[in-house]
Each structure stands twice: as structure tokens, then as C-alpha cells.
Design goal:
Radius of gyration: 22 Å
Shape: globular
CATH architecture: 3-Layer(aba) Sandwich
Strand content: 15-25%
Distance between the termini: 52 Å
Structural class: alpha/beta
Order of helices and strands: HHEEEHEHHEHHEHHHEHEHHH
Strand order of the largest sheet: 1-2-4-3-5-6-7-8
CATH topology: Rossmann fold
Number of domains: 1
Largest sheet: 8 strands, mixed
Number of helices: 14
CATH superfamily: Alpha/Beta hydrolase fold, catalytic domain
Length: about 300
């Protein structure tokens, strides 16, 4: 066999076998899971934990602190990781935060143990304080911290920046939050109760709302972001879908009545509650996920490398 023929046969037979295996795409981020943000004697580190995703080759990226949904009773930071990783690929560090959970006897009679407001938002404030204190350790920009969340997480994200008492307990001010991104949430507990009672009956509303917030007017008021409209100074990106349109629209109207200028709102009428979350989390391309990324980019206070990575 001549030398040229040997070379031809090598190319024909061997090279296709070498290229049959797909190339493994290198991750553009570093992932640190199950970071305990509170370790006091009463800590529940299975719930009070963070999954942190940090983009590589970005000098001190901004940090989005994200709280997933689950009716304050089913929140799981691991469920948010598809969304978190996709945002991190744009050059933004993202922390998926878990918190202690409320009972959910309205759905499952065995889920009868848990916490009530304000313990959820206290946990979020603890997570923010931990990440702020450890920003240099993780290489993120403590001057560019954002808070966002979906569903019950949207409520908590809005509340922690509108009611300053929770961050203040850690010696922090709500002014350290550069922007807040509540998606598909509710912002007035009294209104939320009324809608649930009309659709499912008073017993259901009492069980669900009572387990999370209590049932007195004072407890409703205390837990409602809308109560603290006068103290809102944080730029906000507000997004709803078909199931939460009524809650978001009421909040939008209240913001406009106060002549608050630093908010943007989008009502996504082509997606329901689960549908919008699935698109944000799983779609290769999502205009709604891009809105989140763009909002962080525009509110960012310094020119970081991540602005170039989005291409």
C-alpha cells in the first residue's frame, strides 16, 4: 500500500471516529452550592442556604440575589438554577436564596409545621447581609447588588427594599440595593386574600393566608410591600403574567398615584404563572430574561466587563 493511500484511509476511517463525540462546552461560570448564610443556634442550614454562580473572566460582576417562588411553603433554591446559570452566562453573578418555609396545610394536611411572616423576609435580609459582607471573598461587586424573585419571591424582594427594618437589623440600608425585580408576585396581602376567597372560598383563604401571614388587618398591612410606598426609592422592573396581572396592576396603579417615576412594568398576557417561569428558566432565548439582564446592565454603577460579554 502506497503512503498516500495509507494517509487517505487514515483520514477516511480514523478522523470520523474522533469527531463522532461532541465537544464539551466549557462553563463560563463557577458554581458554589449550599453556602450557609446563617449559622446561629436556631439555624436551618437545609433551608437557609445559597447557591452562588459567578461568571468567569469578569472583574467584580454585579450580583443579583434571587428568590424563587413556591407560595412561601415550597421554595427551593435548586429549582432556580437553570435560570440562574443562564443569567450568569451574561456576566452577572447570581445567588439563588432559600429560606425557611411556612406550613402548607391548604395543599397537604401533613405539611403543618413552619414559620410565619416576617421570618421569610428576615432570612432574605440575612442572605443579603452575608453576601454583602463576603463580596470580596467571592469576587462580586458590593456596590452593585440587585434583588429579584418570582411569585412569593417577588413579594419578598419588594418587601425587603421597601420596608427598611429588616436590612437595618444588620446595619445595612436599603440604598445598597441598586434595583429590584419582582416578577409574578403580589404586593397587597388584603387584596390577595380577597381574590383567593372569591375564587376558592374563605376557608381556603384563611388556611393559606393565615399559615403564612396571620389573618388580622395589622398582619396584612405589616406584610404588604404596598404599605411602604412612601419609602420606595429603588429602581424597579415589575413583570406580571395572566395569573398575577390583577395584583401587579393594582401595585402599578398605586405607584403611579404616588407619582413614582423609577419603575418599569411589563404585563405578559401570553404566558400564565407556570408558563412564564418555564420560559425564563428553560428557553434558549427569552425576551423576558433579556429584560432582567438589560435592567441590571442599565442600573449598574460602573463599567464592568460583563457589558461586553453580552455581545
Amino acid at each position: 500500500m502506497t503512503a498516500p493511500l495509507k494517509v487517505f484511509l487514515f483520514i477516511l476511517l480514523v478522523l470520523p471516529a474522533c469527531t463522532a463525540f461532541p465537544q464539551v462546552k466549557k462553563k463560563s461560570y463557577t458554581e458554589i452550592d449550599r453556602i450557609a448564610y446563617y449559622t446561629g443556634p436556631d439555624a436551618d442550614t437545609s433551608k437557609q442556604r445559597i447557591n452562588l454562580v459567578i461568571p468567569k473572566k469578569v472583574n467584580k460582576p454585579p450580583l443579583l440575589i434571587w428568590v424563587g417562588g413556591g407560595a412561601w411553603s415550597y421554595v427551593n433554591p435548586d429549582m432556580e438554577m437553570d435560570l440562574v446559570r443562564k443569567i450568569a452566562e451574561s456576566g452577572i453573578a447570581v445567588a439563588s436564596v432559600g429560606h425557611r418555609l411556612s406550613p402548607a396545610t391548604w395543599k397537604d394536611s401533613t405539611l403543618n409545621v413552619g414559620i410565619k411572616h416576617p421570618e421569610h423576609v428576615k432570612d432574605l435580609a440575612r442572605a443579603i447581609a452575608f453576601l454583602y459582607a463576603n463580596a470580596d471573598r467571592y469576587g462580586v461587586d458590593k456596590g452593585n447588588i440587585f434583588v429579584g424573585g418570582y411569585s412569593s419571591g417577588a413579594h419578598l424582594a419588594a418587601l425587603v427594599v421597601m420596608d427598611n427594618r429588616y436590612l437595618k437589623q444588620h446595619g445595612l440600608s436599603k440604598e445598597l440595593i441598586r434595583g429590584v425585580i419582582p416578577i409574578a408576585g403580589m404586593y397587597n396581602v388584603q387584596h390577595y386574600y380577597q381574590v383567593l376567597a372569591e375564587g376558592n372560598g374563605n376557608a381556603f383563604a384563611d388556611n393559606h393566608i393565615g399559615s403564612v401571614f396571620g389573618l388580622t388587618p395589622e398582619e396584612f398591612q405589616h406584610a404588604s410591600p404596598a404599605t411602604y410606598l412612601d419609602s420606595l426609592a429603588t429602581p424597579m422592573l415589575l413583570i406580571s403574567e395572566t395569573n398575577t396581572f390583577k395584583y401587579t396592576r393594582l401595585f402599578e396603579d398605586q405607584l403611579r398615584a404616588k407619582e413614582y417615576k423609577k419603575f418599569e412594568v411589563l404585563h405578559v398576557h401570553r404566558r400564565n404563572h407556570g408558563g412564564l417561569w418555564k420560559e425564563l428558566s428553560y428557553a434558549n432565548k427569552s425576551i423576558y430574561r433579556e429584560l432582567i439582564i438589560d435592567f441590571v446592565k442599565r442600573q449598574n454603577t460602573r463599567d464592568t466587563d460583563y457589558t461586553r460579554k453580552r455581545g
